[in-house]
Amino acid sequence: MLAPIHPSEQELISSILLAHNQEEVKQKIDVFMELLNELGTSENEIKKILNNIQSHLDSCNPFNYDAQQWSNIKMADIYCYEIYQAMFGVQYS
Fold it and tell me: In which domain of life is the source organism classified (predicted)?
């Protein structure tokens, strides 16, 4: 069962779906991460947020999205994983 999603995380996922290309997906995630840092979000909370976003992206059914949206979902999933690896150097739990 998926954890409830915070409105800001849902807003990010919605904006990812509307992105025109993969670079725009990365930019949206980078802006979100910068906001978390500006707000002084703890590392543990960032871990939870990244895990939650990835869980929701992984739960997406490809038959419910067009080709661009599905590409955006996969790019966001990969990019969140790369950020997690860069920040914490460990696998998702």
Answer: Bacteria
CA angle, residues 91, 45, 2, in degrees to nearest 5: 70
The burial class, CB within 10 Å (0-12 / 13-18 / 19+), for 65 is: middle
Distance CA 27, CA 63 (A): 26
Q: No. of H helices and E strands in the chain?
A: 4, 0
**pLDDT tens for residues 23-71?**
999 999 999 999 999 999 999 999 999 999 999 999 999 999 999 999 9
Amino acid in position 53: I
What backbone torsions phi and psi does residue 23 show, to the nearest 5 degrees? -65, -40
